[in-house]
Write a structure and sequence with these properties.
The complex is a heterodimer.
Chain A (H helix, E strand, L loop, with lengths): L2 H9 L3 H4 L13 H6 L6 H12 L6 H9 L6 H5 L6 H16 L3 H10 L3 H11 L3 H4 L1 E2 L4 E3 L4 H4 L4 E2 L6 H5 L2 E3 L6 E4 L2 H6 L2 H13 L3 E4 L8 H5 L3 H19 L6 E4 L2 H13 L6 H13 E3 H8 L2 H4 L10 E6 L2 H6 L4 H9 L3 E3 L15 H4 L1 H17 L4 E4 L2 H13 L5 E3 L1 H7 L4
Parallel strand pairs in A: 5-6, 5-7, 7-8, 9-10, 9-11, 11-12
Antiparallel strand pairs in A: 1-2, 2-3, 4-6
Chain B lengths: L3 H11 L4 E2 L2 H5 L15 E3 L5 H12 L3 E5 L16 E5 L6 E5 L4 E4 L5 H10 L16 H7 L6 H4 L6 E7 L5 E5 L11 H5 L8 E8 L6 E9 L2 H13 L6 E6 H11 L9 E9 L1 H17 L4 E3 L4 H12 L1 H8 L2 E4 L9 H14 L3 E7 L4 E8 L4 H20 L18 H4 L2 H14 L14
Parallel strand pairs in B: 2-4, 3-4
Antiparallel strand pairs in B: 1-2, 5-6, 6-9, 7-8, 7-9, 10-12, 10-13, 11-12, 11-15, 14-16, 15-16
Helix pairs in contact in B: 1-3, 8-10, 8-13, 9-12, 13-14
The chains are: A alpha/beta, B alpha+beta.
């Protein structure tokens, strides 16, 4: 059997899901990539048709199909809008894995997913090593953003924030704080809030402390696994997740953890949806932990509103000084995967020093898509520019988003356009009004 | 095989970034919304200026390459599936500028690839109304709507796409620009070529510009729903409303199968025991709306509606319309393949048609739900199946044949709004005549001597 026939046979496992697409094309109306390129192969209907053709050996160029398939943010807008309810994300994840097996994993991705992200101490060391040199290689571009011409091979002409001198877990070590409200949470900061936007992680810890929520924050949690999974690296995903499961399992013993919280829509969606989806890749003991994790994991905005009801129990505060207009960007994973949209808005409204104004297309993808932006920066920028126009046209001088990856993209887009718009996480806005 | 010279010429004309030849790119323009075999073209081009259309057609036609024009590719009868591999697909979706919305003379001028919903929204923002609302309007293009003469929910009162085309510009097979109609309400300057282009499915030329009629929006509207214990009563109510000289802007029917499937999917409290439900909306001046709604209610009761409901709030109304909007999606989710038909009968024949559809579903042992635009007789019998099951799909094909037979016997038509394409081409003569087919073919030969413009569609050439 030829390699391509073997691949086609494997893809035929997706046939039941693929044939649910009735080719209506309605995904064109919501797909951010199609919106930027207007090419059928960039919208889900086109990609599903190509996979179907490859599975039936009507076409043979698997490399080309893989390239097309990777031009997708996995934002899930198509799936949320699909009349036939096709499980598009399941199909794309599975197909990326099969095509990656067929073609081999990109060596850079292999290094990142299999080594860096599975070894938190290595990842942190790399970031620590990079931080002191920033002054030399970073040029100031916006109020808080810089570009790095010497690093353009890796990060393009991106405007990024300064790396923090210390990661969150380096600052706090292994954290165990007692609960005075009867609720204890395991805090899964995620790579971004731990190593890049440490202020988001700090804000979470401040808010949880204020409400008397007990916090457990182990130091050896690794990446949630979504970058590896999205790149078709099932093995890398499993390796990362096994490490996480071992750490989490220790904490779950004795039943002291009521919730697992993250400030990142993508991490939450991964723990809640993708871990159980791939549960069969793990040993039975791990499957049980995955089930518990999926039941306990929650976005921090949702926790504060739906569990602590801070919007109902706190007396309305008075504004002091100028009121900042803020608009909210719905992260795809937060809204389309988890259905969390009202909670972050309610949280922002708790702070009287901010006035929430809605932008047009608040739930249209920002164009980041995790590693999508690294490999398709021009396309990512084009999609991000539309988001930037909507933010600026809202008249807000700040934009909030419940996902640090979105924050990075928004910050880059706004800085590239020299817009004086701050980028924040809703939890930061809420934390600002709490006493230190 | 497309010649390298033609590809080079087109690249020079359009830029290499707008000429696609790879296997994967071509394969992604090999299908549309119809359940039909796909066929990939050898070449795909995407003009960014309408003037380029003429040159593209001339170059391809002279090279003997067949031409299929494609907007969103959301059509349901195969009109945008190429006839042969020796084809070029011309994409119009980058020709998407709204050139003018004239609020004094009530018209708009648009390029072919403007998305219908975006156009309707832009018109609404200017305080006017573009009524045609095909189900695919969030992605469909204006020229695609014209080429298919797309309908929608508002057909009964407001008409369909053809009623809004005041003028067109299109390129003929030689690449020459043809102009027809005007910005005026009245225009008898020459043949009504715009009328010829409507529903022409890419067989006569390539539309490059459209002048569309706009109307003032209605000032008020009111919705009602009614449940019936049998479809005969629902059908009589539809006929009764029209006979009472009320023209609702929407008059939709959901049969029991559809109600059950939608309710299972949506849990929105639909009457699953009713044989049929009507969703009605009247619009216009507030006084007339109140008057019309009262009359509709009277007719519904007289015709034996077991329940008549007037939604109290916008939210409640929205919930009811969700049921209608979710009819096709909910049906589509029930099985892998969804064959959506649009056989249309005179309104008075709706009860008979519904009874026949039920018989056909039973006879061929198929799962079928029927919903649609009862007000204009345009029903959507929807067969749920799995096309991979050859035995089942053969029954589907036999059932579809029989549906058309019945529709024609009842004085109806093969297609109310989806077009003929290749999907219904074999039925054309049955509804019309041998003379009609011959006439159409002679006319087509005159406009397409080499038979390269979507040749297999409608009547063949």
């Amino acid at each position: 059997m030829s390699d391509i026939t073997r691949l086609a046979t494997k893809l035929m496992k997706l046939d039941d899901k693929l044939c649910g697409c009735m080719r209506c094309g309605l995904c064109q109306s919501v797909c951010p990539v199609f919106g930027a390129t207007m090419k059928e192969a960039d919208v889900s209907r086109g990609k599903l048709a190509l996979l179907d053709n490859l599975a039936h050996e009507i076409i043979k160029d698997a490399e080309a199909v893989d390239e097309k398939l990777n031009r997708c943010l996995l934002c899930g807008s198509c799936q949320a809008n699909c009349p036939s309810g096709v499980k598009i994300l399941d199909i794309f994840m599975e197909a990326r894995n099969l095509l990656t097996e067929y073609r081999g994993l990109n060596p850079i991705k292999k290094l990142v997913f299999r080594q860096l992200l599975t070894h938190p101490e290595l990842f942190s060391a790399a970031m620590r090593a990079a931080a002191p040199f920033q002054g030399i290689v970073m040029r100031k571009k916006g109020a808080k953003t810089y570009d790095m011409p010497l690093m353009s091979k890796l990060i393009g002409s991106r405007h990024i924030a300064k790396l923090p001198a210390k990661s969150l877990h380096a600052t706090y070590g292994e954290l165990r704080t007692p609960s005075s409200c009867g609720i204890t949470v395991l805090f899964f900061a995620g790579c971004m809030a731990d190593k890049y936007y440490t202020s988001v992680g700090e804000a979470c810890l401040k808010v949880l402390k204020h409400h008397g929520v007990g916090v457990v924050m182990p130091t050896d949690l690794t990446c949630c696994g979504i970058p590896a999974l999205a790149s078709g690296d099932r093995a890398g995903f499993v390796k990362e997740t096994e490490k996480n499961l071992a750490v989490i399992a220790k904490e779950l013993i004795g039943g002291g953890v009521d919730y697992i919280l993250t400030p990142c829509g993508s991490c939450t969606a991964t723990l809640k949806e993708w871990w159980p989806h791939y549960a069969m890749e793990f040993i039975p003991e791990d499957r049980k932990i995955i089930e518990t994790v999926a039941a306990k994991v929650m976005d921090i905005n949702q926790f504060l509103i739906d569990v602590l009801h801070v919007d109902q129990v706190e007396a309305p505060a008075q504004a002091h000084g100028n009121v900042t207009k803020v608009t909210f960007h719905d992260s795809c994973h937060l809204k389309k995967s988890l259905g969390v949209a009202a909670q972050p808005r309610k949280l922002i409204k708790q702070n009287p020093n901010y006035e929430l104004v809605e932008m047009k297309e608040a739930d249209r993808c920002c164009g980041c898509g995790g590693s999508f932006t690294l490999f398709h920066y021009d396309l990512s920028k084009k999609i991000g520019q539309r988001k930037r126009e909507n933010i600026v046209n809202s008249g807000a001088s700040a934009v909030a988003s419940g996902c640090p990856a979105c924050m990075m993209q928004l910050s880059d887009m706004l800085s590239q356009n020299e817009d004086a718009v701050q980028v924040k996480h809703p939890i930061e806005i809420y934390a600002e009004m709490l006493p230190n | 095989m497309i010649s390298p010279t033609l590809i080079k010429d087109l690249e020079a004309l359009l830029g290499a970034e707008n000429v696609f030849t790879s296997e994967a790119d071509c394969a992604s323009y090999s299908y549309d919304g119809a359940v039909l075999p796909s066929k990939a073209p050898g070449l795909v081009v995407r003009p960014t200026q309408t003037e380029q259309l003429g040159d593209i057609i001339r170059l391809c036609y002279e090279a003997g390459v067949a031409i299929t024009v494609r907007g969103a590719g959301s059509n349901l009868s195969g009109g945008t599936v190429p006839d042969t591999e020796n084809s070029v697909v011309i994409l119009t979706n980058s020709l998407n500028r709204i050139l003018e919305i004239n609020t004094e003379d009530l018209y708009a001028v648009v390029e072919p690839g403007v998305v219908t919903a975006q156009f309707a929204a832009a018109v609404e923002a200017k305080g006017l109304f573009y009524p045609p609302d095909p189900g695919s309007m969030s992605v469909s293009t204006i020229a695609g709507n014209i080429a298919e003469n797309a309908g929608g929910l508002r057909g009964l009162k407001y008409g369909v796409t053809k009623d809004y085309v005041m003028g067109l510009e299109f390129y003929d097979y030689k690449g020459n620009l043809v102009k027809t109609g005007s910005r005026t309400v009245k225009c008898v300057t020459g043949f009504n070529l715009a009328g010829l282009m409507v529903a022409s499915e890419g067989c006569m030329g390539v539309i490059s510009k459209a002048i569309l009629k706009l109307v003032p929006p209605p000032k008020a509207s009111k919705a009602l729903t009614a449940e019936f214990a049998n479809v005969q009563d629902a059908g009589n109510a539809v006929a009764g409303i029209i006979a009472a000289h009320v023209l609702p802007c929407t008059l939709e029917l959901l049969d029991q199968n559809t109600l059950k499937v939608v309710e299972a999917d949506q849990k929105c409290g639909l009457p699953v025991n009713a044989a049929a439900m009507l969703l009605i909306e009247v619009d216009g001046h507030p006084a007339q709306v109140a008057d019309d709604a009262a009359r509709v209610e009277e007719v519904l009761k007289k015709c034996g509606a077991t329940a008549v409901h007037v939604p109290g709030s916008a939210e409640e109304k929205n919930k009811l319309w969700t049921a209608r909007r979710m009819a096709l999606p909910a049906l589509a989710r029930a099985r892998p393949t969804c064959v959506l038909e649009d056989a249309t009968v005179p309104r008075s024949q709706i009860p008979t048609m519904l009874a026949k559809l039920d018989e056909i579903a039973k006879k061929y042992n198929l799962m079928m739900g029927t919903f649609g635009h009862a007000g204009d007789g345009n029903l959507h019998p929807t067969i749920l199946c799995d096309k991979r099951d050859k035995e089942e799909f053969a029954r589907v094909e036999a059932a579809v044949d029989e549906i058309f037979d019945v529709a024609l016997k009842l004085g109806g038509t093969l297609s109310g709004e989806h077009g003929i394409g290749t999907a219904k081409a074999k039925w054309m003569e049955k509804e019309t005549s041998k003379g009609t087919i011959d006439f159409c073919r002679r006319m087509r030969r005159a406009c397409d001597p080499d038979g390269l413009l979507n040749a297999n569609k409608i009547t063949g050439i």
